Amino acid sequence: AQKITQTQPGMFVQEKEAVTLDCTYDTSDQSYGLFWYKQPSSGEMIFLIYQGSYDEQNATEGRYSLNFQKARKSANLVISASQLGDSAMYFCAMVRGSTLGRLYFGRGTQLTVWP
Amino acid sequence: NAGVTQTPKFRVLKTGQSMTLLCAQDMNHEYMYWYRQDPGMGLRLIHYSVGEGTTAKGEVPDGYNVSRLKKQNFLLGLESAAPSQTSVYFCASSTRQTGRDEAFFGQGTRLTVV
Q1: pLDDT tens digits, residue range A2-31?
Q2: How far apart are CA A88 and CA A42, in angstroms?
């Protein structure tokens, strides 16, 4: 069963604009964590941001913020002031409290930033 | 800072051949994982290990075996490669000490089975 859903296969944004990448998740666990990873064309997986299920504040890391809406089970990534170097595949992932660090990934969103 | 290192980075195999992918981490992490990435599928867990000498099946374990004889190494074996195993393979490691199970990934191994 799909536990992480990313409904946007591709997104386009102009440089310096903000963009939101959608992610919804499904779990009955009370304790879980949500991650966003970036995968540029070179292929490596780069950690961007983390949100714990008990964290009351939305996570922020520089230009990245995670819009966490627990009741709606959504964990959208917001990138402010997009840069050309942000063009990449973005994956949402979840770790459930009962699964010892195993990540469940969505299928990804390909973000293209244009000048 | 080496982090997680995968060997090799690229490999072409003929159907039926065997090979072993090596993953090494220098962060003293307890948990290690092997994922495969296929177009449009995200990353899927093949096998994982929660400690030296222990392994367990993930989502897509068929056709693969693993071993973790030392804490820092996690080996993924293909006994008889099939074209369906053409994929990019990622190793990752994590620890609960940070409180958030962040996974650190290797650079990936691109495997083609012809």
Answers
A1: 589 999 999 999 999 999 999 999 998 888
A2: 9
